[in-house]
Amino acid sequence: MAHDTHTETEPTTPAWLPVLGVVLFLVFGAWLALTPAAESTPAAAPSAAH
To answer: Dihedral sign, CA of 32, 34, 35, 38?
Structure first.
C-alpha cells in the first residue's frame, strides 16, 4: 500500500525557540520582581484654597 511507504514527519522546533521563551520569561519575572510596586494614588484631598 502507498500509505505504508509514506511517513510524514512533524517539523522540528529550532533549538533557540524554547531558549528564547525561557529567557523572556526570566527577564520579565526579574523586571516584575525588581520594579517597585505601584503605589495607589491617594484620593483627591480637599483644596486648601480660601
So the answer is: positive
Query: In the structure grid, which three cell numbers stand for residue 43, read together?
Result: 484620593
State the pLDDT at residue 11: 86
Scored b (16 or more CB within 10 A) or e, 11-39 reads eeeeeeeeeeeeeeeeeeeeeeeeeeeee
Half-sphere exposure of 27 (CA within 13 A, CB side): 6
DSSP state of 4: H
C-alpha–C-alpha distance, residues 43 and 26, integer Å: 36
Per-residue pLDDT of the chain (50 residues; tens, 9 = 90+): 555 666 788 888 899 999 999 999 999 999 999 998 777 666 666 666 66
